[in-house]
Write a structure and sequence with these properties.
The chain is mostly helical and about 160 residues long. About 50% of the residues lie in helices and about 0% in strands. It has a two-stranded parallel ribbon with strand order 1-2. Helix 4 crosses helix 5.
Length: about 160
């Protein structure tokens, strides 16, 4: 596996042949596709919503309490961003100003993206679909006999399964 650091490193490596392909969110890459810097070859929808955070709790790197506080705060901002009023104007203006995307693309993206009601809850289906529909098919994980135990993948002191 080669680390390419960011979208520019990925585009450079795909174009020089040192990387065969990369996966990135469609609307983030669309301006580069539109400019002819990279070629779109397909789509693999993720089974998880935006703002689903993966973390490895540890006392030194990411204490459970710190992760919980972060996710509680993040939930407040996600709810505000996801409000109909924000989606109609403030979000479009913010993204257009700070990231330079065309308003038409921003509005199209906002129609496709889903946000969790709480960043502290993970739907069980998200875990099972990620494991079986994505990671197992890609050969990253192999289901143990009897299937996966969803609880193995969620630190319940931080987040709750729903």
């Amino acid at each position: 596996m080669k680390v390419n650091n960011d979208i520019n490193g990925l585009m450079d490596s795909v174009n020089d042949g040192s990387t065969s392909a990369f996966m990135w969110e469609w609307f983030t890459t669309k301006p580069f596709v539109d400019a002819g810097k990279v070629k779109f070859i397909g789509s693999v929808p993720t089974p998880w919503p935006s703002w689903l955070i993966a973390a490895h709790p540890s006392p030194t790197r990411a204490p459970v309490d710190a992760i919980r506080v972060f996710l509680e705060g993040l939930t407040t901002y996600v709810r505000d961003f996801n409000s109909p009023k924000s989606r109609e104007s403030a979000n479009v203006q913010f993204i257009e100003t700070h990231f330079g995307y065309p308003a038409e693309d921003i509005k199209a993206w906002l129609q496709t993206v889903a946000y969790p009601e709480s960043c502290l809850q993970i739907p069980e289906k998200v875990i099972t679909d990620t494991l079986s529909s994505v990671l197992e098919k890609a050969g990253v994980v192999k289901a143990p006999e009897g299937g996966f135990s969803v609880e193995t993948f969620v630190e319940t002191a931080v987040a709750k399964l729903s």
